[in-house]
Fold these 2 entries.
Entry 1:
Amino acid sequence: MKEYHPPLGDREGLRLDFNENTQGCSPRVLERLRGLNGEALAKYPVREKGEVVVAAHLGVSTDELLLTNGTDEAIHLVCETYLQPDHEAIVVVPTFAMFEIYAAATGARVISIPAGQDFAFPTPSVLDAINERTRLIAVANPNNPTGTFVPLSDLMDMARAAPNAAVLVDEAYFEFSGETIAPGWREAPNLFVSRTFSKAYGMAGLRIGVLMGDRDQMGMVRRASSPYNLNSVALACLPDALADRDYVQKYVADTIEGRAQLEHELHKFGTTETTELHGGSTEELRFWPSRANFVLTHLGENCKSFVANMRERGILVRDRSADYGCKDCVRITVGAREHNDRLLSALREVFTELEVREKVAR
Ligand SMILES: Cc1ncc(COP(=O)(O)O)c(C=O)c1O
């Protein structure tokens, strides 16, 4: 069975390698943290209070939602609730590794379907793969590491085509795409949507995720969860994180602008058009337009040197070569304005060093 070991070793520098928020959480959250006392920590956490606040924020009822220890736990709980060894779980690769890991941990068979050209989601192949053993279809939307987006109507089609399967739509990057399938479970009760406070909200270290779905289904999932899965510190900070809307909105706007700038810069050196399947078969610089807070770029033979030379400049980016179809691809996170500026000037320097030339100069 696959294990996931995040390469978190030495992460000194500008963190553009894990799609985290580059500037950190709202100052209001930090103020709350400083105000916590021993009494607050001595008590067991009351998750339900946090659920009332988050449900109001998301416009759903409290029985349609469960707070989880990050999205990771949401995925884990959905797998534990719906999968058994004689079942099948469908994932489209490349995608977020935890789908496969948690699904396989239940003993279920994982059916990996390769993405189409330019990592397009192969909806017809997924529909074809559905059978009576299918109990989970997990989709990250936008997807990690590609940044691609599945049309919401395709997700609804899959949910309707597999009424006995949980269809989990992981919207960890929702704030950057601005498009959601929630509350689609009111039409298709087998649909679940997860969100996280790890990305736009800058709270990955506090581990807060949300799983939403049909009331009855959520009742089943809740049974599998620990009552104290969220700690008191995370719960104390949640209302402040949600209340500081301006902070998150500004961060998201800066990120979307930075993503456009990065894509514009990459466009000078490469292309988004393809004649080959994915990027691995050509040495050309390629990138895939993204709906998330990162851009996947194919750098060919320059991949390893690019990562190393950026690190020399104190900027961490992630080599995704090990992912299906991503050979020689690097994923670059964008974030706060000053960090995007640093990224772009380092990227230009490294491209010059590696003799990656602008298209017009070729
Ligand atoms: C698609 C996707 N889902 C979930 C996560 C993890 O989220 P969390 O920190 O809430 O567990 C990530 C993190 O990279 C991700 O890319």
Entry 2:
Amino acid sequence: MTDYAVGKDVLSYCNACKLTLSHTVVAMRDTKTIAKVQCNTCQALHAFRSKSQARTTAKKTRSKAHIVPVDQLWKDAMSTTNKKSVAYSIRTKFNVGDIIDHSKFGPGIVQAFSDNDKIEVLFNSDIRVLVHNK
Ligand SMILES: [Zn+2]
């Protein structure tokens, strides 16, 4: 294994770039331990972080920022169904997974039942509760 030394390049996680990138060693704690590195991409100086530490941090960040926008949910749902759309009417009885063609909101997918006569429908712009089965 090669010894690290000041001025040598090393892979470290960069907090500013949010990536594991090539860094230059600027300070050593001892002959085997890097204390400080400088990012070759953004020039930021920070403590050395091994790849394993970086992975844990990245996972935590990702789960916290896990918010899928409605239009993305809608696109995914529409791309995984091959059902024919049915024109929306409050007299029609809909089931979960049905595709509704709404005159105002456009095509939507029934997500769940809400009360006895209401359905939750995922539209491109929003999730709406509609009355059905009247
Ligand atoms: Zn950087």
